[in-house]
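Everyone, describe these structure tokens:
***
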Amino acid sequence: MAEPTPVVGTVRPGGRTARVRADVLRAAGDVLATEGFGRLDLADLARRAGVGKTTVYRRWGTVANLVADLLADMAEQSLPRTETGTLDGDLRANARLVQRTLTDPRQGALFKAVIAAATCDPHTAAALHSFYRVRIEEWVPCVRQAIERGELPADTDAHEVIRAVSAPLYYRVLVSGDPVDEAAADRAAAAAVAAARSGSFPSSATGGLASR
């Protein structure tokens, strides 16, 4: 009897199953980074990963499910937040992590491919949104700690502050084509800090934490 199809992103297999998952996701990432979303094909990925085609179809079923699993895995493997003891230091660390990711030859190209696909594929868009929710939640405690230290207004929307750090960097990558270097990362962090301190991110403006 065929095994039930797992819910993507909820199963954490071990042993051979884990190795198969890792090999297929690595192959998918390679194709995304070098050839783009349009070249993803489950049968081809099975061949590249050296696993059975039936195994790949049974586990993921569709390219969209596989990309969702890839993004879930990337979110889990991403570096944890850095806590420096100051909001300036924490957000600068966040910005520089985003900058390094976007300029990495493999990961930068991979993200561009996924973002491009997300504009016309709702399943890929949902997976991308989930990835960023995980990463934002990872860094939100830095802002909450700054509120507790009295560095920011008490009603600051921590999620909006973290979004404000990376937004200018993605704009450079996807729209303007301007350099995404450490200087740009530091400016983005400094601008987010200044805006947060001035009260530009009140939770009441967007419904605050209850709306996330």
